[in-house]
Amino acid sequence: MSETNQMLDVLAVFSHPDDAELSVAGTLLKLKSLGHTTGVLDLTRGEMGTRGTPEIRAREAEDAARLLKLDLRINLDQPDGHVWPTEEARQALVRILRAHKPRVLLTSHWDDPHPDHTNTCRIVREAARLASMRRYDEEAGQGAIPVPAIAHSVFSRLVAPSFVVDVSEFLDEKMRAIRAHASQFYKANSDEAETRISDQGFLQQIEWRMRYYGSLIGSTAGEAFYVREALNVNDPVELLTRPMNIYS
Ligand SMILES: [Zn+2]
């Protein structure tokens, strides 16, 4: 899955090979069902992970990509645990954005306890802007693109979502895509070291959180996003008369 000229409507950019699944898999599945082309860019191969190996994780990421029906899944080969907004990282991402021309990027929120996630967010915001500057990395000969819109995946109670996507229909498919990363999650009688996410309760918490965000819009499951920019609404009546939960 590395077709160099695959145009994308939506590209999810996250740090580690299971982050996109945990954060936005429901939204990617829903967007695909609506006819959009979708891709995932993993910044690292997850080689710092307590469990699994880069080879196992690459196979798992491919399996998950099939379950998510992605048009493209690629890797930026940044060092796991040391993701940093270097010029090399920014330029590499600008080249990806100019090659695939996504109109919307999904990524982490900057208020995140994992430094790789915080820095991924920063690289994404900077590269999105730089990709629109004609003179930036001109020697690559790709040409500038319009700045893609950026929606940040929300998990923190301190961040009020700008919108919640109803992913009720895709809850089971999302959990299957997450479980494709089998080396990372709970396995009975595993002799590998325990981690936060390999705990038996972790995937249950992911599901409960989706159900909580769903409850905010009166649906079974949701994924929440924060957009830094003001949303340009064409028809407020259409928007505001969709089902919502006045107790949110
Ligand atoms: Zn991560």
Write a concise keyword list for the protein shown above.
globular, 248 residues, alpha/beta, seven-stranded mixed β-sheet, binds zinc ion
Descriptive account of the structure:
The model has no long low-confidence stretch (mean pLDDT 94). The protein is of the alpha/beta class and 248 residues long. Strand 1, helix 1 and strand 2 form a beta-alpha-beta unit. The longest helix is centred in the middle third of the chain and has 16 residues, at 115-130. The protein starts with 9 loop residues before the first strand and ends in an 8-residue tail after the last helix. 35% of the residues lie in helices and 13% in strands. The chain is built from seven helices and seven strands. The chain binds zinc ion. Residues 15-16, 19, 114, 116-117 line the site of zinc ion (ZN).
Fold topology:
Elements: E1 10-14, H1 19-33, E2 38-42, H2 54-67, E3 72-75, H3 87-100, E4 104-107, H4 115-130, E5 149-153, E6 163-166, H5 171-179, H6 202-216, E7 222-226, H7 236-240
Parallel strand pairs: 1-2, 1-4, 2-3, 4-5
Antiparallel strand pairs: 5-7, 6-7
Helix pairs in contact: 1-5, 2-5, 3-4
This protein binds zinc ion.
